[in-house]
Amino acid sequence: MGKPLSDAVRRLQEIAEEDLRVAAACLELRPPAVRTAAFHSQQAAEKQLKAWLVALGDPDPPEVHSLPALARLIAGRGGPVLTEEPLRLLSRFAVGPRYGLAHVTLPEAERGLTAAQQIVEQATRAVAALMGS
Predict the structure, then answer these.
(1) Is residue 102 helix, strand or coil?
(2) pLDDT tens digits, the chain, 133 residues: what are they?
């Protein structure tokens, strides 16, 4: 993988890790910032899936928020088929909660953070294997 692509992968991964930290911190607040935590959980998974696509050779991943759609693109490039349920859960948090258009409960936000952490971990391992690190 060329340097510009590996730089793009690293940049997306760094932002994904930051989004995970923000989501976790939001849930520690009293009262918890549930909508913001849910949004950043979704963003972490989205950025990590896009990093995976770049590592698979797609230098310009689509500007979509649908995690199932990104997962299908990964599978289409030879990656594994990812479990749909956590992807669908997180995709609900992409836009609606940020604008007060969707209600998110604390348990949903906590499940979303756990799902995002698992997706980021799986994708990070896959990207490391693809990049030889």
Answers:
(1) coil
(2) 556 668 999 999 999 999 999 999 999 999 999 999 999 999 999 999 999 999 999 989 999 999 999 999 999 999 999 999 999 999 999 999 888 888 999 999 999 999 999 999 999 999 999 988 6
Residue type, 49: L
Give the whole-angstrom CA distance, residue 34 versus residue 51.
26
For 117, counting Cβ atoms within 10 Å of its Cβ (0-12 exposed, 13-18 middle, 19+ buried), the class is middle
Instruction: Give the start-to-end residue ranges of the domains of the chain.
Output: 3-131
Can you read off the two tokens belonging to residue 15?
């932002």
SS3 104: coil
30 sits in the region (left: phi over 0; alpha: psi -120 to 50; else beta) called beta
Q: The domain 3-131 belongs to what CATH superfamily? A: Nucleotidyltransferases  domain 2 (1.20.120.330)
